[in-house]
Amino acid sequence: MLLNSLVIILMLSGFMLFFATTVGLLRFPDFYTRVHAAGKGDTLSTALLLGGLILYLLRDFNGETLLTAVKLSLIVFFVFLASPTATHAIIDAGYEAKLPSWSKHQQREGSGGGGEAGSVPGKDGKPDRPEGDS
Q: Which pLDDT tens digit goes with each residue over 8-21?
């Protein structure tokens, strides 16, 4: 009974985090915050869902379920290694491509998040220099 409750709590928490990740992807203003939401939410929700599944499998303890639980634990471990690394690589690629980041000043002026195409925004939110100039 207690184990079933724990499994339900872990699974529901994982699903709620996946939902929050989806909302973050749709609502956040720029590339960097969207990727941040996707990376954090994906990692933690996957761990919660698979943790709930591992506990559910271990109710019936035998060699087969133990082997499956170990395999799922390895998946959780590799997701915890790979997901933050991939998120960092994606954000680094966006930074190197000079994708503009969101600021409150841009929202007050109503310019959205992009500025002019092919420009790098300065501190005042206006294009500071063309993209090709370094």
A: 999 999 999 999 99
